[in-house]
Design a protein that fits this description.
Blueprint: E1 9-17, E2 22-26, E3 34-37, E4 57-67, E5 70-79
Parallel strand pairs: 3-5
Antiparallel strand pairs: 1-2, 1-4, 2-3, 4-5
Organism: Amycolatopsis roodepoortensis
Protein name: CspA family cold shock protein
């Protein structure tokens, strides 16, 4: 398992695969893209479908982890509204 410094970063959604429930976020704070799973999304109402759209701005915490071909994984992700 990776480690996180607990800092909240900002990023933008580069891609989102609705059927698979995951996507990729890019942040100026990191050289590598960040893998994000829908289960880590916050800020949605009860029963509201949790997904992101390409171009959405998000706040997130990040850990270093091996997830598929990605080296970073989002732990807590919330759209900036």
């Amino acid at each position: 398992m990776g480690t996180s410094d607990g800092r909240v970063h900002r990023g933008r959604v580069r891609s989102w695969l609705v059927d698979d429930g995951w996507g990729v976020v890019e942040s100026a704070d990191f050289a590598d893209p960040i893998w994000v799973h829908y289960s880590m999304l916050e800020g949605f109402g009860p029963g509201e479908f949790r997904k992101l759209d390409v171009g959405d701005e998000v706040e997130l915490t990040v850990e270093h982890a091996e997830q598929d071909e990605f080296r970073l994984r989002g732990l807590w992700v919330r759209p900036v509204r």
